[in-house]
Amino acid sequence: MAKYCSQLTKEMLMEKYGIKSLSWDEQSHKWIITKDSTKKSPSTICKQHLSTRKHKYSPNKVYEVVCVYDKDTKLMKTLSLARVVWAWFYGVPEGYDVDHKDNNPHNNALENLQLLTRKENIAKRYIDNNINHCNQFTQLYDLDKTVERIINSNDSFDEKLRKIWSLYDLNSKTKINNNKGE
Is the Cα dihedral 123, 49, 46, 30 positive or negative? Predict the structure, then answer.
């Protein structure tokens, strides 16, 4: 079984997963990832999609992932887009997670990402998830259900991303306004 916090470097992305380049598109605010073409996957653009993963410290977390072909195992593998971006520029040492500073898992801009140990990341999630937990439980539950409906809709990837981004943007503005008086 592969370790969740395993090392990931630019060289590994290129050699093991066939990623050729990674560039930020200012217009769409998305990463464009090009890869080697194969018989099974003739496209040279890596498809990004939304994925829901359940974690004990962050239930129903929705974030962007990239599917790549692992040349060693000859299997498709799903990598977190944030992890790919950080690894491309800095490398991810074993035992570290890539975290979103603003807690918005769809804001994968390089300046919004940071490297944390697994212990630090779990502590951050625990604190973030428990601040005003009693008062915000209903709001968070409704947000999770709304995100789940968006993901299961027939909208395009870009439309789903836009809708989820706006939800988190509205939620963060609400959070900021609620915290101003404290």
Answer: negative
CB atoms < 10 A from the CB of 147, how many? Answer: 20
The span from the CA of 75 to the CA of 71, in Å, is: 7
> Which residues, at least 6 apart from 90, have a Cβ–Cβ distance to it below 8 Å?
115
| Contacts of range 129-136, beta carbons closer than 8 Å, 24 or more positions apart | 129/57, 129/58, 132/178
- For the segment(s) 10-175, the CATH number from 3.40.50.2300, 2.60.120.260, 3.40.50.12780, 3.90.75.20 is 3.90.75.20
> 128-165: per-residue pLDDT in tens?
666 545 445 566 667 777 888 888 889 888 888 888 87
The b/e string for 93-117 (b: 16+ C-beta within 10 A; e otherwise) is: eeebbbbbeebbbbbbbeebbeebe
Give the list of residues 6+ apart from residue 54 with CB closer than 8 angstroms, or none. 60, 61
Q: Which DSSP letter does residue 111 get?
A: G
What predicted TM-score, i.e. pTM, was given to this entire model? 0.64
The residues that bridge with 114 in the sheet, in sequence order, are 99
Residue 81 neighbours by CB distance under 10 Å: 24
